[in-house]
Specification:
Blueprint lengths: L9 H17 L7 H17 L3 H17 L9 H4 L3 H19 L8 H10 L9
Helix pairs in contact: 1-5, 1-6, 2-3
The structure holds flavin-adenine dinucleotide.
C-alpha cells in the first residue's frame, strides 16, 4: 500500500468511499427526518457525477437509471428513492449496489442482512475483538 502522502489509487478510493457510505447508512435512523432523507438521496444521486473514477461513475449512473426505470433495485427490493425511507431499507439497498460492483469485479458478495451489516459497520463482531 502506498504511503499516506500519495493520492489514493482506485482501490484505496473505493475502500474509503464504501467505508463512508456504509458507515453513514449504519447510523441512518429508522425514522429519518425529511432533511435527512433528502440529503441521503442527493448524496447518493450525486456520486455518478462526481466520483473520481470515470468508468465506476458511469456504471453506477447506469445502475441508478436502470433501477429508477424499473422502480425496483437490482435485487428486486425498493429503488433508491424509496430506500431512503428508513435505515434498514437504505442499508439493504447500499449493500445490493456494492454487491453488484463486487460481482462485476469477481469479488465475494456479502449477505445483506441487518445482523451482518450492523456487525461490520456499526457494532463490531459479537466476540468484541474490534472493541477499543
Ligand atoms: P471493497 O469492495 O472496497 O469493500 C470494502 C469492505 O466492505 C470489504 O472489506 C467488506 O468488509 C465490506 N463489503 C464488501 N461488500 C459489501 C457489501 N455488499 N455490503 C456491505 N459491506 C461490504 N472498482 C472497479 O475496478 N470498477 C468499478 O466499476 C468500480 N465501481 C465502484 C463504484 C463505487 C460507487 C465505489 C465506491 C467503488 C467502486 N470501485 C470500482 C472500487 C471497488 O468497489 C473496491 O472498493 C476496490 O476494488 C477495493 O476493493 P476491496 O476488495 O478492498 O473491498
Amino acid at each position: 500500500e502506498a504511503a499516506d502522502e500519495c493520492p489514493p489509487d482506485g482501490e484505496a478510493l473505493g475502500r474509503g468511499t464504501w467505508a463512508f457510505l456504509h458507515s453513514a447508512a449504519a447510523y441512518y435512523p429508522a425514522t429519518p427526518s425529511p432533511i435527512q432523507r433528502e440529503s441521503m438521496l442527493a448524496l447518493l444521486r450525486a456520486l455518478p457525477h462526481v466520483y473520481p473514477c470515470a468508468p465506476c461513475a458511469e456504471s453506477l449512473g447506469e445502475e441508478l437509471e436502470r433501477e429508477a426505470r424499473a422502480g425496483r433495485s437490482h435485487e428486486g427490493g425498493p429503488a433508491l428513492a424509496d430506500a431512503v425511507h428508513d435505515g434498514p431499507s437504505l442499508r439493504r439497498w447500499l449493500c445490493g449496489v456494492h454487491n453488484e460492483v463486487n460481482e462485476r469485479l469477481g469479488k465475494k458478495k456479502v449477505p445483506c442482512t441487518e445482523e451482518v451489516l450492523q456487525a461490520r459497520w456499526r457494532d463490531g463482531p459479537p466476540d468484541g475483538r474490534c472493541d477499543a
